[in-house]
Amino acid sequence: MSPWLLGPVQAALALLLAPGLVGAIRWMKARLQNRSGAPPWQPYLELRKLFAKEVVVSNNASWLFRAAPFIVFGSTVAVTLLVPLLAVPLPFEGAGDLLVVVYLLLLGTFFLALAGLDPGSPFGGMGASREMTVAALAEPTMALAIFALAWSAGSTNLGHIAARMLATPTEGLAPGHVLAFAAIFVVTLAETGRLPVDNPATHLELTMIHEAMVLEYSGRYLALIEWAAALKLLVFFTLLGNLFAPWGIAAALTPGALLWAVLTLALKLLALGGVVALVETHIAKLRLFRVPELLSASFILALLAVTASFLLR
Amino acid sequence: MSPELVSQLSVGGSTLVLLAGLAMLWRRGVRAHIGAFTAQSVALAATTAMVGWFTGDWQLWAVAALLLLIKGVGIPILLERMARRFGTERELEPYVNTATSLLVGGLLVLLAYLVTARLVSVSQLPTRTGMPLAMGLVFVSLFVIISRKKALTQVLGFLMLENAVALLAVLGTHGIPIIVEIGVFLDVALGFIVMQVFVYQIHETFESIDVEQLNRLRE
Amino acid sequence: MGLLSKILRTGIVTEPLGTGDSEVVHLVREVDAEARRLFGRALGIREVDAGSCNGCEIEITGLMSPVYDSERFGFHFVASPRHADLLLVTGPVTRNMEVPLRKTYDATPDPKLVVAVGDCARTCGVFAGSYAVAGSVDSVIPVDVFVDGCPPEPTHILRGILTALQSGRA
Amino acid sequence: MRALFLLLIAGYASGAAAALALGSGALSRWASALGAIVGASAGLALAAGVCIRGAAFSLDAPGFFGPVGGMAFTLDPLGAVFLALTSLVAAPSALYGAGYARLWEGRPALRQVGFMLNVFLLTMSLVPLAGGTLTFLLVWEGMSLSSYFLVMTESDEPEVVSAGQWYLAMTQIGLACLLGSFLLLQSGGPGGFSALRAAALTLPPGTRDAVFALALIGFGSKAGLIPLHVWLPRAHPAAPSHVSALMSGAMIKMGIYGLLRVSLDLLGGGPAWWGGLVLALGAVSALLGVLYALMEHDLKSLLAYHSVENIGLITMGVGAGLLFGSLQMPAAATLALVAALYHTINHAVFKGLLFLGAGAVLHATGMRDMNRLGGLIRGMPWTAALFLVGSAAISGLPPLNGFVSEWLLFQSLLPGIGAPSPLVAVLMVLSLGMLALTAGLCAACFVKAFGITFLAIPRSPEAAAAHEASWSMRAGMVVLAVACLALSIGAFEIVPRLSSFVAPLVGVAGPAPAFSVVLALQTPGGFARMSPSLVAAGLALVVLTAWLAVKAFASRRPVRVGETWGCGRVVQTPRMEYTATAFAEPLRRIFAAVYRPSEDVSVDFHPDSRYFVQSISYHSAIVPWFERYLYAPVISRIRSWSERVLALQSGSAHAYLTYLVLALVLLLGWLVVTGQP
User: Fold this and answer.
1) How far lies C62's CA from each of C30, C66, C116, C148, C153, in Å?
2) Which of A197, B95, D409, D530 has the fewest Cβ atoms within 10 Å of its own Cβ atom?
């Protein structure tokens, strides 16, 4: 299989897995609440339904409201072309590094927030304001964690980082890495709207962050946005799984290796999903103005990660 | 164990010890603070044991055991009793708010890294890599003492300071003679008891262990 | 950790689909089949309290409880009518809720169903003739199914939703 | 070359002359704009020539200003970059201005602006061309004064006057520092830069430090580094919009140019603390700039604070370059300087675009207060789309140019951790964190700026009645928007050139570090690779595919237009929307420690019972702390002194005669004491 073909394959696989990941987390949460819960493939059914439904658009909304879902979805899919989902070296190694991934995700957030403001609904504005606040406060943590990773790997290119980790597995246990992992995990919770930052299952407008921005969306537009959100979660999990523990990722593009890579990837995603489900069962949502405390704690983790990599250089 | 592994482990261990200290700045509840202190003492004991294993020095093993016994078990029990006695008074209004405290903590760690840089560069021990973090914990626990209001929290700050010094000694000099260590323990125990008495007194007098109340003694 | 052990000790309390032949079980089997057929087994429900005494709300909350757990049929309550396929309306429509109810109905994209829950929804119950009451639900928006009872049990509400699904205006 | 140079001067001069000659009608508008465009195109061609050839162009004119030693012009690649970006903003702004100036028709203001704008552009284009101290200071002051007059265009409004005073004061303080700096640098001689370069090596370290410090203050006040930035948020809103675009896009960059020229070229770099200081100043400016921008709801003041922020980012690059240069890390230094230069160019383009957009809004609604705007995307679709492009670019979003230079900036800080001294490493880590926070907050701020201004329901009748800008204004903006995309996609062509320009400045022997492989940027040593063009292509492809797929497979039901969902509330009014202030409220609470907002709530109760509240009035203001603690005391001190001096002016002729006699006596006495004839 030619490396250029790998990109589309990765994107297709990510699109395929993402709703299942969300469904799996919901299922595990249901089980932890002693319910039998919806089956893990429920999100697929919901996407199918939404694509079939009518679209209602606010009379105050402009063309931006209709364009935003495609940009949000597109930018997230573009990220899946860059992250090491299945194999290193990556198909588009030279196209973008870890920073580009962060900026592409920011692009999606930016347009989603604008779309939230567009219909002029108070909830949309509230959601947009909060989403941008959280996103902005999460940036420093992400930057420093990337800093720590890149320094020990000698590059910010995702492929290099994963390959380096494969070459020297002991690196994975270095304190710098563990701390960076913890920091990025907290950022993942914040950026993908999970507890304790945002409650993905909330019905109360005043506590919403992500939901509040998409209250106006319906039908296929909503489907695109929900799919993009699931995809974003998958991207962050992939970064956590394949940058810090890239075992099982294919080094050569043989069918066997790729199959094994898919299998291990699925296992990693499930494991991380289980952790998230446990966390969400255990802790309550933070007040909005306690969120900065959480993020500054994660910033401290990232800072210590960098310091540790200073000390061990 | 290879020196590289040792230096990694000492960084890891002291990171855990430091994180427990920073947790004091993050969490509000007294119980959480006590838990953080316990975890810190255990991590400290583990680090000491690791160094002992590396150097093959039985005294360090003994010190580790003492740490585990006194600070990992004994003092936490006493603290729990105090907490139960006073009800769980939370650090609702520290002098510095939580987010800022955390950032200050981070800066203090960087400062410690700067001041210990030369020290680390001259030392030859593989465990030297952890020293900046231990020094960082010294600063952080001092910050805890000055920025928090509840007497109990300040006691914890003092105890963490002592942990930090012990860690510094273990990493910097591969441990001090056990006699000295025992002496230090006695000091700590004594100081702790004295402070306990003080805290009880404060509580008797003001029905609260908020040291702000002490201002009322002026008039 | 205490929480985890409790979770493990409690186990799954949802009424199983497979065993037993209580009414609920039969019902949920049918509901499952119908939901699968009509809305691709994914039904977004928007609950509108048009002025009820909240008795019906308590029963509706029961639907989401671990025992009935209607999420297993792909039902879930949504935060906005834009996301909804079915409106669950309770209570007599008060004058203040008349316009909001109509707006909610307009805001819901097609195909959509309306299930009116409780006696008040059909007859305005004890509130009938009050100066504050605009009328029954079907005097404001088209209703597919009425669920009687004051308040109706969760099973009846489930049956109502089922009937609405079968009525197949969707 | 020489011809282009003369054409540049001729173009601007003819534009100025036309404005004076042709009165204040449509003809003069277009003539002066045409002159400016000709001059700008000539400048662009000249710069391009120098950049491509890589050889400097120089021309001495001892004829002009004989008494002060004649004018000397040279244009090396570094200067060419700045000439290029100036001309790049100048041409579209002039075109835009031609349309914008219609509102002054029949008023002297038109003539004044037409003339001053051309003088401003001419002097500003000559700054990077200046080859000697005197020439430099002459054109520099020309630039400052002409821009001052442009700021004062609407001089019948009080806040414009006060803005002008602030601006004049800051520029003159800056000029004083520059004079001092150059005097220290120039030990006699004609003061050609080449001579200074040679002389600087022999200067004692103390003098070099003094030269650097004075230059930093002088150029920093022009660039708008905190705390010398106070004039920007005042002057930019006061000036006509295309002038603000030029000042913010091009003029403040001359401060960066001067800093680079003096510290790197003339002084040839210095001790590490220079770089550290500049880096720290840049980081602080960036963060505080964006934080205060978030609190603004005046569209143009918001953009002005973002200029402070971006100058901060550029300065971080410059500082890192100086620092690495002094640490003997030439590759890293080159990368940092390239990042700085590239961000300078990019900021010129997108900030110019944004100011022109804000001008179009002001032109259409007569308002700058975002809390009264909104819904403009219907009235003025072109302006909205173009402003959106600018917002995405300044937020560093792919695939636009801001993203490329911010990426380079991040990459240029990463090598810092490898620096020998731990202090440098810590400095780098901290500034990296601040850079990231700045980037995030900038995105948040432009969601606010665009979303509140252009989206949702109009908040005032003026906003509802907004009309689209005239074609020339739109054309000016379109040019800049296209440049935003081109500068991103063409980065792999431009960046290597920049590196070859700056590499000699930081003492890279031989070829400059490689910066690009096919279509992609690569940092020296292959630390990281990124390809803006591929990212752009990928994004376009994916979005298009998604659109087609949805078209093909999703339901074909027609889109129904309904009311905005507001939990069934009866009617939605603009008062229910989020305002700019509300949008920034969370950040304001989070960073309250920085803002120290003053808040007073006054509740007046019903006369009969305190249980009935009649009205609650809440007022809150944010005074930047450096203005409260730094400028206010100084100003009050000066005022008290001047009042004391006023006491001398008693008005009686005798008193004045006494002063004269006293002065004479003192003078004579001094001569006697010093024993001179």
Assistant:
1) 19, 8, 17, 17, 9
2) B95
Residue D420 — pLDDT band, cuts 50, 70, 90? confident
Q: Is residue B121 part of a domain?
A: yes
pLDDT attached to residue D545: 93
Residue B71 lies in a domain: yes
Residues B143, B105: contact at Cβ < 8 Å?
yes
Cα separation, B109 vs B104, whole angstroms: 9
Chain A residues touching B18 at Cβ < 8 A: 304
Average pLDDT, chain C: 84
Task: Find the domain containing B146 and state its range.
Answer: 3-86+97-217
Contact C78 A219 (CB under 8 A): no
Q: Write the pLDDT tens digit of every residue in D554-578.
A: 877 888 988 888 888 878 888 888 9
Instruction: Please give the structure tokens belonging to residue C95.
Output: 């004058």
- Residue B216 — very low, low, confident or very high, per pLDDT cuts 50/70/90? low
pLDDT of the residue at D153: 85
Chains D and A touch each other (3 or more Cβ pairs < 8 A): yes
CA distance, residue C130 to nearest chain D CA (Å): 22
Annotate chain A with three-state secondary structure: CCHHHHHHHHHHHHHHHHHHHHHHHHHHHHHHCCCCCCCCCHHHHHHHHHHHCCCEEECCCCHHHHHHHHHHHHHHHHHHHHCCCCECCCCCCCCCCHHHHHHHHHHHHHHHHHHHHCCCCHHHHHHHHHHHHHHHHHHHHHHHHHHHHHHHHCCCCHHHHHHHHHHCHHHHHCHHHHHHHHHHHHHHHHHCCCCCCCCCCCCCHHHCCHHHHHCCCCHHHHHHHHHHHHHHHHHHHHHHHHHHCCCCCECCCCHHHHHHHHHHHHHHHHHHHHHHHHHHHHCCCCCHHHHHHHHHHHHHHHHHHHHHHHHCC
* Closest residue in chain D to residue B97, using alpha carbons only: D593
Number of compact structural domains in chain B: 1
What pLDDT, on a 0 to 100 scale, did the predictor assign at position B213? 66
Residues D485 and D399: their CA atoms lie apart, in Å, by: 7
Q: What is the mean pLDDT of residues D428-449?
A: 94
Average of per-residue pLDDT across B80-96: 72
Q: What is the distance of C-alpha C81 from the center of its chain?
A: 14
Judged by DSSP in three states, B89 sits in coil
Q: What ipTM does this complex have?
A: 0.91
Q: Find out whether A251 and A3 touch, Cβ atoms under 8 Å.
A: no
What does the pLDDT average to over D5-32?
86
- D76 in contact with A at a CB cutoff of 8 Å? no
Mean confidence (pLDDT) of chain D? 87
Q: Is the pLDDT of residue A273 over 90?
A: yes
In tens, the pLDDT along D492-501 reads 888 888 888 8
User: How close does chain D come to C21, measured CA to CA in Å?
Assistant: 40
Q: Which residue of D557, D561, D564, D567 to mutate against C (max C Cβ within 10 Å)?
A: D567
What confidence tier does B90 reach under pLDDT thresholds 50, 70, 90? Answer: low
Distance from CA of C79 to the nearest CA of D (A): 10
Q: Which residues of B touch A173 (CB under 8 A)?
A: 8, 12
Cα separation, D330 vs D339, whole angstroms? 14
Under an 8 A CB cutoff, do B113 and A310 touch? yes
pLDDT at C170 over 50: no
Shortest distance between the Cα of A16 and any Cα of chain D, in A, equals: 15
In a domain, B62, yes or no: yes
Which CATH number does the domain C23-167 belong to among 3.10.180.10, 3.40.50.12280, 3.40.1380.20, 3.40.190.150?
3.40.50.12280
pLDDT over 90 at D510, yes or no:
no
